[in-house]
Amino acid sequence: MKKAKRLFFFLLCMILILSGCTKKEENKVDLGGKTFYNTAGGYREPANIWFGKDGSFVMTDNLKEGTYQISGKWSVKENVVTLDVESTGAGDFTKILFEIKDDKTLTLKTTLEGSAADQVFSVDKPAGSSGNTETPEKPKGDDTLKPDTGKTEPADHATYYNASQTQDDKSFVEIYDDNSFSYTEIRGMGATVITGLVGNEGTVLLFSNFNAPLYNSKGEAVYNFEMEVTDENTLVLLTDLESSFAGDVFTIDGKLPEGYTPPSVGKTYLEWVHGPFPKGSEPAPGCEPRFTLYAFGDFTFTENVYAGMGEYKGWYEQTDTGYIFHVDDASKMKGFAGQDVKEIVLDYKSENTLVLKTDLCMSQNGDEFILE
Questions:
Q1: Cα–Cα distance between 360 and 310 in angstroms, integer?
Q2: d(CA 78, CA 29)
Q3: CB–CB of 298/312 below 8 Å?
Q4: Got the DSSP string for 55-92?
């Protein structure tokens, strides 16, 4: 009898152990390398999250104004995915939770800026977004984005170069048949490369879901940008970017269409003028100190030297707080205060106001420059 009881107890323990092991195995879901899409859709493309096999994640969430990204580390405990947020383009999240339904389905348990709690994310990408239930199409005509250019590039791939830029290395966009794109922004000796998805509204191409941050020349985040298709070889940029600007023409051969006249020669994209002077010390009209930031990183600073107008020329860099002008040519300042200046520093006071941090001649530390 005792032997039978011991046997029964042993079998019961084994059943419990095996049941526990089986249950644990059922909850073990491998998310590494997978991308889950919000089945509720989005304003243009569904929000999505990619789980890296190294424990990192990148989530792209949608707002009406555009998209933003969240990144950090992920971990799983039982049926809960915890995202430890290290950076986010909107909100102040530190943790985001998902419930695991199965290896293809997650349920969001945290309300984000663009995605709501209890929305379902699936490895199966939805056909469209909440604002458009159809898959984005290319502008009318299947060959609009892949014209026969005579080049040896893949048939599903067309490249357009910024013909409005004057340097040899031009910014360019590559558009693929699978509705993806790659954009390379050339600025001076550097370049910014982003990839993402492209859809359209009529003849306007919509570029969004960037894999990396994109900023314009003022340092403002760009969440999406647009181009208009004028013909099979020509796109016109409708959004200011870092060194390409609204109105720039992108073409297959990198040349402006015949008869096209650019808005200006040596086009500028930021021009600033000295703010108001104390009463009684104003310079003559038109003689206010001012500077112009040219495309591709050059600047000209016209300074009032009391006996006329001097000038600094060189290149500039944008910092987290403003700009640093590196002076290459101050020959027109010779004999005046500020002739030996090698760097001119300006900090942002607001989006449209910079504060000078360097003594020049008429312009002194603390003076303000206003964006025209």
A1: 10
A2: 9
A3: no
A4: SEEEEEEEETTEEEEEEEEEEEETTEEEEEEEEESSS-
Which residue type is seen at 110? T
For the stretch 325-353, what's the b/e string if a residue is b when 16 or more beta carbons lie within 10 angstroms of its beta carbon?
Answer: bebeebebbeebbbbebeebbbebeeeee
Q: Exposed, middle or buried by CB within 10 Å (0-12, 13-18, 19+), for 121?
A: buried
Three-state secondary structure call for residue 10: helix
pLDDT at 196 over 70: yes
DSSP result, 266-308: T-EEEEEEE-PPPTT-PPPTT-S-EEEEEGGGEEEEEEE-SSS
What is the bridge-based pairing of β-strands 343-350 and 322-329?
antiparallel
Q: Give 22's DSSP letter.
A: H
The rounded distance, in Å, linking the Cα atoms of 253 and 171 is 12
Q: How does residue 166 score in pLDDT terms, banded at 50, 70 and 90?
A: confident
Residue in 271, 272, 259, 247 with CA at minimum distance from that of residue 165: 247
Residue 129 per-residue DSSP state: B
- Residue 284: which residues within 8 A CB-CB, separation 6 or more? none
3-state secondary structure string across 306-334:
CCCEEEEEEEEEECCCEEEEEEEECHHHC
With residue 26 as reference, give the H or E element that holds it: helix 2-26
pLDDT in tens, 324-372: 999 999 999 999 999 999 999 999 998 789 999 999 999 999 999 998 7
For residue 168, count CB atoms less than 10 angstroms from its CB and return exposed for 0-12, middle for 13-18, buried for 19 or more: exposed
**Helix (H/G/I), strand (E/B), else coil: 146:** coil
Which tokens sit at 64?
């009406």
Picking from 315, 344, 341, 314, the residue whose alpha carbon sits closest to that of residue 329 is 314
Give the pair of three-digit tokens for residue 316. Answer: 């500039």
Degrees to nearest 5, angle at CA 329 with 283 and 326? 90
Count, residues in the chain = 372
pTM: 0.35
User: Which residue pairs from 153-156 have beta carbons closer than 8 angstroms and sit at least 24 positions apart in sequence?
Assistant: none
